[in-house]
């Protein structure tokens, strides 16, 4: 442990025991990042436009594998009670056969509970850990090509067995020749070309799938391809990921949110396909027993995670875009070590203001303001008649407790809402998708780390934190008076689908029981 305070903590929420400083060293890869981001954005447009002809050999493979999956479903399960589970299982198996790009697509879907069909989400979760590692000899070759040095001149040692092997890259523990412990992220060979080829195939295929398989209506195939392209292309250049690490770390520092710690990228050992960074470890995010035995407050861990994510999104428009258990470690001092910045949410000023309005409207029970915010985020067309949406969806009326609804009525209401949203041109833009994915992860983390937490109390604490620490700035940006921001807890309760006159406290465990009951009742019905 160093005796002096690191000289780069003003630049980011980094560890207090630095292997190097990002303040005293030139980050040689950083000046290229702006032009790299612009180049990527331009490439996405061409990749997601349906081509007249796709890459023929790859297209033939994809059509054969997906066709077999859909054909098997149509013959054996379509129209039956197993229709959704059947097509979901077959699509997941097809993704595994088609390789890394499609496994990555499945992994993105697996984090979309509430966005994609539950059956599809559950199947795609099985893809998380099923990517075989690249042989170590190939990893050595890529490292020497990218770093332009023999391996022994850069690393004193490197563990041949990866810490993690994912669809885009894998990570190895290593020690630099100068003695620093590092994590080395290495891109899979030829993954960039494979992803781009697959995206051209998907862009050609997606319009042909519309209406032919029961995927979520709000994430129809062409829209899903657009969203996927925006997400995966960002991961193909590790210089951009390193810059994302710096930006997210800076946001935490500016917020004085030191409950998070971000690894320092190496000043020189970062290329398109290799990222050397400070090694971060700790308790796995689901290791409740280990954390409690170490005396860590799991409630505090949850609240730190929620505040850090929300403040970054609402106040700075930058947030980690792919929270999951493999990307978070709880350190012995209770800080959250955040890794894997390949997907990072970046909001324009207009989008950030829309997120602020969405938060403000949600806490004050302003349903019209919430729909307006969704429109401004791109979830609805710019010319949408907000009053008509509010009226047709009936969201200005009192809460309806789904526990008190008959299954037939519940199914009819779901179908009505989906049909109405489609009629208004609703879809899921990338910033909102990443935001929802992270909320879903936090939702699951509460279930694991703090199931007895009172959700109404947590919402009140977060709203109070924002009002106390950022209220003047937020209301000024929104053109409001600070006195106009008053938490409407009854509206919050309505958002959880409970009657505010009947329920004063709702733990996460109780919410889970409600959800399980609703799912059980719905399982008796088939919702297309």
Polypeptide structure, described:
- The chain is of the alpha+beta class and 528 residues long.
- Among the domains are: 37-130 and 191-235, no CATH class; 349-522, no CATH class.
- 52% of the residues lie in helices and 9% in strands.
- It has helices at residues 33-48, 56-76, 83-98, 100-110, 118-124, 136-147, 151-154, 191-209, 221-233, 238-254, 288-293, 298-316, 349-364, 367-376, 386-393, 407-423, 430-449, 455-477, 489-495, 508-522; strands spanning 155-158, 164-165, 169-176, 181-187, 260-261, 265-270, 274-278, 283-284, 318-320, 328-330, 336-338, 344-346.
- The strands form three sheets. Strands 1, 2, 3, 4, 6 and 7 form a six-stranded antiparallel sheet that branches.
